[in-house]
Amino acid sequence: MRIILCETASQIRQIVAFQIAEPEISIVALTPDAAWACQRLGRTYIKPEDIYSDEELACNSSQIFTSSFEWIDEIDGSLQAHIPQFADAQFGPAQAWCLVLQSWLGEYYRGWHILQRLFKQYQPNHVLCWPYHEIEPRWNFVEDQSVLSLLLPQVASYCGVPFKILPEVSEHNSTISQNSTTRSLPYSRFALERFIRSYINPLIMAAQRQFGSSKWWAEVRHIYKTGLMNVPIPKITSAHKRMRLLTIGRGYDLDPTITILRREGIPIDWLDMYVPGTSHGPTCADPPLDAGLQTLLHQLWKSITPESMLWKLFKAWGLQPVQRAQQQFSHWWHEIIPQLWSGHQRAAVQLARKRYHAVIGMDAGGETLSGAMMQAAAAANVPRILYQHGSSSRIRTVGWQHFLVNTDLFFVYGSGTAQLIERDRLRHAETIAQISLIGSARLDFLRTGTSKLLISSLRALLHRNDPRPLILYIPTNFGGPARPFGEQTGYPDVSYFELQQRILRIFKGYPSVRLLYKDFSLANSSYNPVPDFIRAELPDVTIVHDLPLTRLMWAVDAIIVDHAITALGEVLLTKKPIVVYDPDPIEGLELPDARDLLRRRATVAITPDEFEAAVRTLLNRGDFTEVNQPDDSFLRAYCTHLNDGKSAERAAAEVMRIMRHS
Predict the structure, then answer these.
(1) CA spacing 20 to 30 A to 208: which of 406, 539, 607, 631?
(2) Region for residue 19 given its phi and psi (left: phi exceeds 0; alpha: psi -120 to 50; beta: otherwise)
(3) What is the structure's pLDDT at 16?
(4) Residues 6 or more apart from 356 whose CB is under 8 A from it?
(5) Residue 69 belongs to what H/E stretch?
(6) Taking 70 as the threshold, does the pLDDT of residue 229 lie above it?
(7) Do the bridges between strand 409-412 and strand 514-518 make them parallel or antiparallel, or are there none, so unpaired?
(8) 28, 46 in Cβ contact below 8 A?
(9) Are 281 and 272 in contact (CB under 8 A)?
């Protein structure tokens, strides 16, 4: 048996063009793009998820995260031992970049695991692959290609299987998400809103990048995000006027909270959290990096050979050393550590300039400078507060450990979220953050921030003189090469693409309703071929690009959502009939009562067959009447806590309590 791994439609087309695909060659379609090309050309294919077990991979995730946490401590300990200023400043660059490093390491583990299972299950006598295009390592480790393509030659050699690298593909398609040209709605009646979204928002963001972390531009963006009518008039006399808050970055739950704090008379200062020179960070006002530190890091790389620490971790997992991993780790060492240190020092200077009683943010260890800035706050003995940023019941919060390490108080959406965190909390010496039940200020704002007039106008626009009921289908994005393998449980890319095809095809038999497909084009996600599939097979389906989900959900008659993460909390704010796909391939991914709570409000399916049956039942019934008194148990546990619309007030009160005692 001969096997070939393919990621793009171009590769599939070249196989056919050069007649490489002999009957005994099996195609492994690594992405939805490759799978869709095989379908159109009538070729059978193997999916990665045919090879490995979700359950086995997910069960290993805790071990991977635990050992990577220990490795991160080792890296920081070595750096602090050789650079005393790091130790004095409580600066741990690996911990400040924790989530990126853990996701990156997990992707290598996942790739090695899948390829070993592939060779064991199919026992090929020959393997073909396309050349791996090594680009300059990116700041967030995101690659254009799957790590499986990178590891294949090494695994083949390790297993003693001959392999051949094929000639360059003449038309190389990136797996990074692209926008397809699809039918869209005529938004002329929302011309002003579209103009603001298309031009004003990018203009504000570009200006902020131009002027760095200028407080003036931060204020402009805050006004834009929260609305002119919500600009607070501070109290003239305030018992809190001597307390000052430092905000790191912005987040959709932070904005309403900051508005309340302003109204209470709390002075607010801002720090930009994005890495300079990236798609989000400033480009023209970048502070100069410490040349001495860069030289020292270069010398340390030669003397303490940090890549040997990386190989030790790889070998503990059964992986072999990978040259590409060393290039990426070297890039982080020489390029990202100075950026993190620069952010740390910028925060330290700000904290020394004024007396702050607390620091608040929405990230503390992801692909931003926020983790390093939170470490500067710890060194200055300033309380650190973090506000949960999205998600719902279907999360493995072991990946949130960096939140607990780099903050003192973590605001979460509900009791269910808190239980998830406690269940997954690593028994780590420094995971000291306390959990505070707050609710989502953003969801409260969404519930009250859309007027009936706007909903009515939008509904008229969507109908376009077509009286049929509107059904909204909400997918999530395809993971892509950099998605943490723990998050893919139940949603492996190719099978998830096939699931969407299966559900969308149902609507061919129900011409009495209109389906709206909400297309999400997100950075770092794989190319989404679903719009191409819709154009080819479902011309009656409308693909919606520009209108946000938080507007659409109010104007439709029923909602189908195929993931129990952030979007679920949003649609549960409505009274619409809802069908939810919530697969459960492993034991313990969600808390035992989470799905029971969700079933009180929505129809829940846990297998593809149940999902299809639930959608058909909804369409056959044809009753899309709004739920009169929807059960809010799930909302309370995972989204809005007390569900009283006062999450921002609770957050602000808790911030002020912390500030008073600091």
Answers:
(1) 406
(2) left
(3) 78
(4) 244, 245, 246, 269, 377, 380, 382
(5) helix 61-82
(6) no
(7) unpaired
(8) yes
(9) yes
Residue 135: name the closest of 145, 149, 147 by CA. Answer: 145
pLDDT of residue 296: 93
113 or 508: which leads in pLDDT = 508
Sign of CA dihedral 527, 530, 534, 536: positive
Read off the pLDDT band of 545 (50, 70, 90): confident
With residue 359 as reference, give the H or E element that holds it: strand 358-361
pLDDT at residue 596, rounded to an integer = 95
In whole angstroms, give the CA distance from residue 527 to residue 587: 31
CA distance 14 to 506: 33
Tell me how many helices (H) and strands (E) the chain has.
29, 16
Q: 515, 468 in Cβ contact below 8 A?
A: no
Q: Which of 289, 585, 655, 245 is nearest to 441 (CA)?
A: 655
CB 388 within 8 A of CB 415: no
CA distances 448 to 350, 441, 452, 551, Å, are 36, 11, 10, 12
Asked if residue 656 lies in contact with residue 264, where contact means CB atoms within 8 angstroms, the answer is yes
Q: Is the CB of residue 589 less than 8 Å from the CB of residue 601? A: no
Tell me the two tokens of residue 175.
């797996």
| Confidence band for 632, pLDDT divided at 50, 70 and 90 | very high
The token duo for 176 is 């990074």
The amino acid occupying position 324 is R
Q: Is 617 exposed, middle or buried (0-12, 13-18, 19+ CB in 10 A)?
A: exposed
Evaluated on CA atoms 13, 16, 17, 22, the torsion sign reads: positive
pTM over 0.85: yes
Is there a contact between 603 and 580 (Cβ–Cβ < 8 Å)? Answer: yes
In this structure, the number of other CB atoms found within 10 A of the CB of residue 94 comes to: 27
Tokens of 382: 């300033």
Q: 437 - beta bridge partners?
A: 412
